[in-house]
Amino acid sequence: MAVPQHPRSLIVTLLPMELSGETGTFTISRTVAAPLDQVWRAYMTPAQFVQFWAPVAVEIPLDSVVIEPRVGGRFECTMIVEGVANHNVGTFVEFVEHSHFRFGEPRFSEGFSSIMSFAEVSDGTRINVEQTGLPVEYLEGATEGFTSVFDQLEELLARG
Length: 160
What we know:
Helices cover 28% and strands 37% of the residues. By secondary structure, it is of the alpha+beta class.
């Protein structure tokens, strides 16, 4: 099976680059057809996390994932993009089980934080993402990247 390729704009935004210092806010939401507990486990279990967290054609080695589900805990992984390692080193600054988590990643961008919130709805689980302090250079590929992540999450959840 061929590995799906993404437009160059998405791959470029995942590679290390010089940043202008300008930031913005990104938001996206998706409802997935699975119960909240199953969705939460996928985010908190490294063996499941690596199957969906990166866009298609980007690899996350399982041994690079550290998820310490508590305030002050580590939230880390390495994304391999076209052979280049991109180390994501975050810390949970808010953590409410089965509700939401927020992590900061100051080495990525000073003031960056990402909050993922989860709510049970009639047709599954609603996931809301808001990233603040996101370098503007990453905004272009963010929607496409998270759409790919959500698509893979749905495939994982459908397999049980």
